[in-house]
Automatic annotation (TrEMBL):
It comes from Leucocoprinus leucothites. Residues 79-101, 187-281 are annotated as: Disordered. One of its GO terms (biological process) is ubiquitin-dependent protein catabolic process. This is RING-type domain-containing protein. Residues 88-98 have a biased composition (Low complexity).
Amino acid sequence: MSCCICLEDLNSPVSLLCGHVFCHDCLKRAVQAVQPYSTLHACPTCRSHYFITPLDMSTVPPHLRPHVTPSIRRIYLDLPSTSKTDNSPTPTSITPPSELSRTLSTEIARLRAEVEALKHNCSLWRRRAEVHSSATTGLLELSRTARDQIVQTCRERDTIQRNYHKLNHDFQRQQAILRAVVNTSMPQQRFGSPSNPPYSQPPVDQSTSLGQMSVSTPHRRSCPTEERGRKRLRSEDGDDYSAGVTYLNSRPTKISRRVETDSLDESSTSPSRLQVRTETS
């Protein structure tokens, strides 16, 4: 076995981390030839890097020391002797042909049995792989279909939400417009307008008798405030009339009543006024 640097037989062989073996002196000269000085060098054969700084084993924990090896370590090789006597085979080292053939046949049988076992295991694992592949393919297809369905459902949900928000916005805007219109028109209905007076009444014919006289009002919708006011006025008028009748009946005088109907003013919108005159004899 020769050194790759000096091309001679190995003298004090050392090995690097990559496994190449060199002479100790040859490797030392190769390291010293590198200028400037560096602790990182490359193997002369494969150019793999190694460090030449020694490692302090005291800094390594005890349980890790068996697994730590230096970058350059000395090895010991059992090299064969170069003498002719050593190269010539001895009679004791020759194996008989019968024993050799028996050994070879045993080894061949063992290898054949191992090959058959490997073939059986290979076919078994192939069938298992096919079953597993079919099951996995079905699951993958199912998961892919479920994922596509989820994505489609999410898109439909987003579309429905956008439509809902749009319709809700339009509805709120229409409600606001309607509320503003109602608030604007309510004062005109309550207090009346030039085109629609609230308390206007048609003129009453003077020839109509008191019992046949009726007052008609235009057909229009009145607000709750007007209804309450009318009820209160009717109740007050009824109370005043009852009080007057009671007072007149209590006096010992002869009472005659005369109802006169005043002429209605064309510009006036109030009902006809009734004047009651009492005369005492």
